[in-house]
Amino acid sequence: MARAAPDRGGALWRLAEPGRQLDANLVRLPPGAAVGEHAENDLDVLLLVVGGGGEIEDGAGGRQTLAPKALVWLPRTSRRALRAGPEGLVYLTVHRRRPGMAVGLRASAGERAAPGEGGGGEGPCMLDRVCPACGRMNERAGAVACERCGEPLPSAPPD
Q1: 12: burial class by Cβ within 10 Å (0-12, 13-18, 19+)?
Q2: 3-state SS, one letter per residue, for the chain
Q3: Using CA atoms, how far apart are residues 60 and 150, in angstroms rounded to an integer?
Q4: What is the pLDDT of residues 14-31, one digit of tens each?
Q5: Which residues have C-beta within 8 Å of that of residue 14, sequence separation ≥ 6?
Q6: Quick one: CA dihedral 122, 128, 129, 130, positive or negative?
Q7: pLDDT digits 0-9 by tens, 78-101
Q8: How far is it, in rounded angstroms, from Cα 77 to Cα 137?
Q9: pTM of the entire structure?
Q10: What are the b/e assignments for 118-146, b being 16+ CB within 10 Å?
Q11: Cα pseudo-dihedral 83, 31, 128, 125, rounded to 10
C-alpha cells in the first residue's frame, strides 16, 4: 500500500496480515530528512536499505554510510538516528511483533511483569511519529503535527 507521494516521506507499506509474528515497514525519507535519535528498548530491529542512501548514527557518535543492500542489525536498547542523503532513503525495518495492549497489574519501577501477570503490554510502533514531510521522529506520543515543520502527522485526525 503506497501512502507517501514520490516527493514526500513516510510509510510506503506495512505488514498487516492478522496472526503474524513479525512487523515490517517500508519507509521513505526525502532528501536530507532525518529521524531523530531514539531507541527501541524491547526489540531487535533489522534495517535493510532498498533505495537511495544516507547514514545511521549510533548514540555514541559513530556513523555508518547506508547504501542499497546495506543490512544493519539494531540490538534492543541501542540508540540510533537516520539521515537521508541527496537522493532520499528508502528502507525496510523488520522486528518481532509487539503483543497487543493488555489490562493488568503494572510491574513496580525497575522490574518487569512476569509472563501472564499483565504489565500493560509493550508500546506500539512509533512509525506514526515520523513526519511524512521532513522525516523527523517526533518526541511526543499523540502529537498531531510535526515539531519541526508543522506538517500533520499520519495519526492526526483530518481537519
Answers
A1: middle
A2: CCCCCCCCCEEEEECCCCCCCEEEEEEEECCCCEEEEEECCCCCEEEEEEEEEEEEEECCCCEEEECCCCEEEECCCCEEEEEEEEEEEEEEEEEECCCCCCCCECCCCCCCCCCCCECCCCCCCCHHHECCCCCCECCCCCCCECCCCCCECCCCCCC
A3: 29
A4: 988 888 899 999 999 999
A5: 1, 23, 24, 25, 26, 127
A6: positive
A7: 999 999 999 999 999 999 987 655
A8: 17
A9: 0.62
A10: ebeebeebebbbbbbbbbbbbeeeebeeb
A11: -40
- 145-153, long-range: CB < 8 A, 24+ apart: 153/128, 153/129
State how far the Cα of 11 lies from the Cα of 154, in Å rounded to an integer.
9
Q: How many angstroms separate the CA atoms of 83 and 77, rounded?
A: 20
Q: Do you know the residue count of the chain?
A: 159
